[in-house]
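Hi, can you check this record?
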Amino acid sequence: MDVSGLMRAAQHAGEWRERVRERVMGLCVRNGRLDPDALNIHQHEAHGFAWIAAYAAILESLAQWARRLEETGRYGRAAQLVAAIGAGEYLAQLAAGIAMSQDEFVRPSDFGLQAEAAAFAAQPDVAALIATPRAARQELVTLLQQAGANALDDLADDDETIAMVRAQFRAFAAKEIAPDAQGWHRGNKLIPLDLISKLAELGVFGLTAPVEFGGSAMGIAAMCAVTEELSRGYIGAGSLGTRSEIAVELIQSGGTPAQKETWLPRIVSGEVLPTAVFTEPNAGSDLASLTTRAVRDGDEYVLTGAKTWITHAARADLMLVLARTGEAASGHRGLSMFLAPKPRGDDENPFPLAGLTGSEIEVLGYRGMREYELAFDGMRVPASSLLGEIEGEGFRQLMATFELARIQTAARALGVASNAFDLAFSYAQERKQFGRAIIDFPRVHDRLAWMAVEIAMVRQLINAVARKKESGGRCDVEAGMAKLVAARVAWSCADNALQVHGGNGYALEYPVSRLLCDARILNIFEGAAEIQAHVIARGLLAR
């Protein structure tokens, strides 16, 4: 695929996005300002615009990746096929319709832009890519059979150090995590502490933390590579670092010097395992409605209320608790963040702390750390545990972590997708039907090719967002796009991998059955797909 043509096609996709943006602005802007009520009324159009914008961003990232490979003499046939297949499919969907979910599609007719969509699809560079022959998929699979399934992964990173880190953690996950993952899942077992210790020794809990606190300060792109490869072994292992990343960013950006000195070195070393205690039974994404109370009583705060979907809560040593210190009607302004220490629990006594009880939520997948409902009944924490020692800053402090959390979640999703591809690719070569390996059948190798292509495409968006975050630029919208599409890709790849396995994929003994359960949650946590699309649309329309 000609890189200059690919870049022109990506530019046309950006222009198409702007045409759609104009129509959605006309629906949702009143008196020069974005109207929240209108945005809710026109959710289908607004959320569709978010998906269109995400596709345009991925095409731009894909084109930039191809250009960098060409400049370094690495734009070989496999990369060319990825560019042609991926761009062609995404451009075709932009012109005809994108699936926002399994039964919701956004089409040009939703915006009254049928003629404009036809003109967009007729642009020579766009039309050429849309016309990429289906035989390209078979050729890509053949190349991957010859070069190895990791051939595209080896083109993922421009930075040699990050590429080495990726390879190191890929090997670690294959040896130390993947062989036991299915047993942990089926037995609902906690990830062993000795594995957590090994991850700590490898620096997993301090990848973005400052060197002065024991971190490696390797940056967000490296964190994404590590997270992806650990999640490729088992999503629970890739998710262990999530709470540490959130805790480090919260304390680093909002903590007092004493709080930083007390907690950051211990989190980075793995001595302290943190957990995020934000969600409530009646307030998922609606943080302004949180009701858990923290009342000052001398040198302490007394916490009362309920929290739910708290990951790794029993084993955690530190709870990051979002609670209301203001009046009941104070909304976001009345929230505060607390660094609440707790003794580490075990199976016999999971919550050995006065005023705190909890019960496990049994789940389909995403095991290894377990989920809990927590009840605070007069639990006391030192007044010094108030993050920053200023009340009412909790919402602002939490918002500062969302970009990193969503980038990291996108990387976890990509790890699950890559695991699904690995299993399907291997199985399709081994499984024989009608006298030949099923990978030789068009419907099978077409699926495998698309899985590999979409993983490679979304990885470049994640890398682009990571670089933007590292440079200090605001990337809340872009991080949301990465999470939105990566979660969809994880589910699609897991579903396709199970289909390749046929009936065997439905058997609990096959790891691909676990992936279907693990992938499903990615469209829900860290912002459900619908919330994510709403945030993206609101952010883009307000710019």
User: Anything to note?
Assistant: The chain has a mean pLDDT of 94. The chain has three domains: 3-132, 149-272+393-525, 274-392. The two ends are 34 Å apart (CA to CA). The longest strand covers residues 300-311.
